[in-house]
Please model this.
Amino acid sequence: MERAGSYTPYPANSMAACASLYNSSGNAVKTSGEVSNTSADYFIFAYTSTMGGTGYHAGGYVKLATGSGLAQFICPQTGTRSSSNSSRAALLSSLTATLDRAGNYPTNSNGETYGSGLLVEVVGDMPALISAENADGVCGYIRESDLTPATPAEAAAFMETLVRTIPLYDINDNVIGTYELDATITSYNSQFAGMSIDEVRATVANLTA
Model:
């Protein structure tokens, strides 16, 4: 997310981003959690640590302050070097079969929606419980609301460590393990001031290569 070509930075806590990597089953195996600009800034982006092998699919969202709060924008099919468009389309087709006839996520015994975060591209929003697999190979669900720090103080603490552990649930909200949010983020302040959009994109491409 950028404010390029302007010398006025975005105010603190007015930008946020979250990135995820999904495996070939549609489970989130790496998630940055939501990171934000805890001080005035021109630019912020988030990405996860890497995974070995192939067959991973990237996704995420950004948020930008509006007059009524933070508006969320989904970033479907973000760039990835480990998965082709055709394999992603095949996975989405398979995952879509888990939706109900109206194209909505199924719900658990508590009335909460659940499913793969990749299905945001089909449904339009994330499920309350996102299918995930932790570092120990335990499959379950992470809560969408757990991706967002609850307070500015919590957000600032997360930005200091870039690591935060959240619960891993089964389909009915029972805790079955933990899931580590693992972010790699950069806030560059004046480095991007005055750049054109194309210059910002070229710089970011070099930073994440």
Observations:
- Confidence is low (pLDDT under 50) at residues 1-5.
